[in-house]
Amino acid sequence: MKLFRLFASVAIASLLGSCSESQPVEQKSPVDYVNPYIGNISHLLVPTFPTVQLPNSMLRVYPERADYTSELLNGLPVIVTNHRERSAFNLTPYQGSELKPVVAYNYDNERLTPYSFEVDLNDNRMKATYALSHQSAIYQIDFEADQPAYVLVNTRDGAIRQGEGFISGYQKLPNNTNVYLYIETQEQPAEAGILEAGKLNAAKESAEGRDACAVWRYADGTGSVHLRYGVSFISEEQAKKNLYREQQDYDVKALAAKGRDIWNETLGRIALTGGSDNDKTLFYSSYYRTFERPICMSEDGRYFSAFDGKVHEDEGTPFYTDDWIWDTYRAAHPLRVIMDREVEEDILASFLRMAEQMGNMWMPTFPEVTGDSRRMNSNHTVATVADALVKGLDVDAKKAFEACRKAIEEKTLAPWSGKEAGWIDAFYKEHGYIPALQQGEAETDPNVHSFEKRQPIAVTLGTAYDQWCLSLIAEHLGLTEEAAYYKQCARNYRNVYNAETAFFHPKDKNGRWIEPFDYRYSGGMGAREFYGENNGWVYRWDVPHNVADLISLMGGKEQFVANLDRTFSEPLGRSKYEFFSQLPDHTANVGQFSMANEPSLHVPYLYNYAGKPWKTQKRIRQMLTTWFRNDLMGMPGDEDGGGMTSFVVFSALGFYPVTPGFPAYNIGSPLFENIKLSMANGKTFEIQAKGASAENKYIQSATLNGKEWNKPWFSHDELMQGGTLVLVMGNTPNKAWGAADDAVPPSMD
């Protein structure tokens, strides 16, 4: 059974630094470069968290605190149940006389890796050491011997019970989902019971409700306590089975060593030479983030699905969920297509299962452990399917076409809604755009979210792209009429293009432009009345499937480049306070470009389409070095489970999938002199960036497999066949390289 597919070990990263002849050279393996603390303090939005987990594993934890600056920890973590948002249970070691379900500790000497962590608690009186596997983990708690030692296990809303040497229970999650826990202790407690009114009640074995809590008290003088636990979304009994399947003892160091090996096998599929230590740290830390989600829910061949509230047999194909597709379709899914094809195929098969289980056969848009939250706008699961098919993955195309079509046509296009299509959807089908409201005009579609609004330009552009992707799936199936229809719909962005301003401009149901209009500030909070989290300057470039036509609309390559340049230089127009108070997602600005939000990720690569690839090379290096760093604020915006960091991985490698759905990659500017990708098909693709450095960011010339290469892109087939791309780098641009009219990357036109 294909429960967890882990990458095979390949080359180890280069030696770190230089030493004198008398000193041994320190070797660092890929996981040693990972710094989980990068971005733990946010510029403005939700930060990253230092997550401990194995690649795509169901069990993941991080210290429970608001961000890195938090002074206190809320007990010790047991399981994160929703990326960046929810945790379940608490484990609380304690010494003292005032027992509580959860103790807020001060902490010190925290050391965290992708596979383990340790931390001193409560003025250094206790030390916790932790390591995990896919569905189980081990804690070692070291106590001072001068006071009685307790371990409390709390469920925030559920039930807990204690038996001989074990505690088990469940916690309720939204949408009738439960997470289950089974925990054992190696050292026999002197007393066990349920917490009531701050005391251990040894006569009671179970409790239900808020903060139901079981307690173990250990004999005076107990120095160390060893705990191991399993988790499940199926049952307490399955949690116990998961524990026993993965753990035979309480050896936390041995478990950490296993986790370290798994991460090195995974990250080692990409080997790097050159660049600085900080460059490698940025790269491998970003690559590690791309494995935070989605998570594999299969447990001994079964899985719980919140999409119908049932337990299913997985029939040999693992079930994955918790994938915020609006963010991850852009680069995280394309990265898996290259590096872990079978997992990507299983994820897409999971999407189809979700569509079936929901009963409407609508593809999910924001699948989580607790079901599809339908957050954000558009239906970009369609893009993940189209991209997989054009790149040769095994997908049930017939079923996927039906589920993608229904998601676009039967479900409303209104953001953050899972309701059936309403009148604005009928309007879109007839007129080819989502109508905006004039100032003071009341909302008339009950599907529209009161806060998220219609986002008419974001939805129109996003749906046009989705319909282009749907046309590719139809072509794959030989459905010529459907392919032609959806390809025509893919031009709907033209219906909201204002030729006088060269922006995508909202208009009402009568075809009148919304006036007066400011492309920086119109649209209220997050510009949602017209766009979505970003303003008109960002959505000006949201036609990834037909950049050639966008160039034509703007009057040609020269004007297109001028408009791009102005995007990176246009001032905020107001104070930072005013700008960010209205557009809190539109951060990490260079001019009006926002490095902190996913709709901007492809924008620096668009110069490649207009004969100016040297400007792409300059911009990519500028963005990487300005906003992504080896420090606590080194992640500019929300890191949505690989949404942002997969951009860093690709861009550091020197290429990027601007348009999922086209089997092509735009060339940028590699950070490293030598890169080797050991890909899912067993072949190796090598990128030699000769002389690459902070200054030498410009491509002077290139060869692919020994042949002269004068295009700022290459195909997926050329990548997957293996071979060598050689880029000769310099500190001044070669403005002729890749600039020919016939060298541009592919577009729909």
How much strand? 15-25%
Which parts are unreliable, with pLDDT below 50 for 5 consecutive residues or more?
A: 1-24
Shape: globular
Tell me the name of the CATH class of the largest domain: Mainly Alpha
List the domain count as a whole number.
2
CATH architecture heading of the largest domain: Alpha/alpha barrel
Over all CA atoms, what is the radius of gyration?
Answer: 27 Å
Span from first to last CA?
44 Å
What can be said about the biggest beta sheet?
13 strands, antiparallel
Number of helices: 18
Structural class: alpha+beta
**Tally of strands:** 36
As for the CATH topology of the largest domain, it is: Glycosyltransferase
Mean pLDDT: 95
Helix content: 25-40%
In words, what does this structure look like?
This protein is globular. The relative contact order is 0.10. The two termini are 44 Å apart. It is of the alpha+beta class. The longest helix has 21 residues, at 456-476. α3 (277-289) crosses α17 (645-653), α6 crosses α7 and α8 runs antiparallel to α10 (456-476). β14 (191-196) and β15 form a beta hairpin. It contains 18 helices and 36 strands. Strands 3, 6, 7, 8, 9, 10, 11, 12, 13, 14, 15, 16 and 17 form a 13-stranded antiparallel beta sheet that branches. A six-stranded mixed beta sheet has the order 18-31-32-36-33-34. The chain folds into two domains: 34-267, Beta-galactosidase, Chain A, domain 5; 272-743, Glycosyltransferase. 25% of the residues lie in helices and 24% in strands.
How would you briefly describe this protein structure?
With 749 residues, the protein is α+β, with helices and mostly antiparallel strands. It is 25% helix and 24% strand. Residues 1-24 have low confidence and may be disordered.
